[in-house]
């Protein structure tokens, strides 16, 4: 059972729909993952922070948009965070009716299909969402490439004495002027 299936009955249909829109628009950033807590920032009209945290009473849901402090928020931001957990495999095991496993920060290297039938049903109704999910675990291309590079480095398959160097340079002055990172890459070939 996925986390979204576990919590589906607690969220109204319109809230689930609006939360899935954040996922499709890639407006969710996971900012912190520990075994007991997952924090995500969701770009709505303003920035909201959703937190899923384990306690003795089960999984607590908290969002900065909620005026209640009872840790049982059921807003679209929490639903978006739940969908990210499923999509990117942030759970260290399988959810059961009585148990939600701890979070794992090793989601970038997750190999299982953590999407579950709920996300697949949503993809059936929306071609753009289906295309988004069809990418490797819903990750962006650069995330997939970075993960593959990390795996290659861990296996030691990258030569230590390469004849080619790739240099990344950040132009700080231009980055500040344009309010975004300006990156230049260059390649050196040893002969």
Helix-and-strand structural type: alpha+beta
**Unreliable stretches covering 5 or more consecutive residues:** 107-114
Molecular shape: globular
- Sheet with the most strands? 4 strands, antiparallel
Plain-language structure description:
With 191 residues, this protein is α+β, with helices and mostly antiparallel strands. The protein has two domains: 3-147, no CATH class; 164-191, no CATH class. Helix content is 37%, strand content 22%. The protein has seven helices and six strands. The strands form two sheets. A four-stranded antiparallel β-sheet has the order 1-2-3-4, covered by helices on one side. Strands 5-6 form a two-stranded antiparallel sheet. A hairpin with a 2-residue loop joins strand 3 (47-55) and strand 4 (58-63). Helix 2 crosses helix 3 (76-88). The longest helix is centred in the C-terminal third of the chain and has 15 residues, at 141-155. It is globular. The termini are far apart. Residues 107-114 have low confidence and may be disordered.
């Amino acid at each position: 059972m996925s986390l979204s299936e576990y919590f589906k009955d607690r969220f109204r249909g319109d809230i689930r729909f609006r939360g899935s829109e954040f996922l499709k628009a890639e407006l969710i950033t996971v900012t912190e993952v520990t075994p007991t807590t997952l924090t995500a920032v969701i770009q709505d009209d303003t920035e909201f922070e959703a937190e899923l945290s384990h306690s003795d009473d089960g999984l607590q849901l908290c969002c900065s948009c909620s005026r209640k402090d009872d840790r049982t928020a059921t807003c679209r931001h929490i639903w978006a965070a739940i969908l990210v957990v499923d999509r990117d495999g942030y759970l260290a095991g399988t959810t059961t009716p009585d148990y939600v496993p701890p979070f794992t920060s090793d989601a970038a290297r997750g190999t299982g299909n953590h999407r579950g039938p709920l996300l697949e049903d949503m993809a059936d109704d929306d071609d753009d969402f289906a295309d988004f999910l069809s990418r490797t675990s819903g990750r962006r291309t650069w995330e997939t490439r970075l993960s593959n590079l990390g795996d290659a480095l861990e296996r030691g398959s990258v030569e230590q004495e390469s004849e080619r160097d790739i240099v990344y340079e950040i132009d700080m002055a231009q980055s500040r002027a344009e309010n975004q990172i300006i990156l230049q890459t260059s390649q050196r070939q040893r002969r």
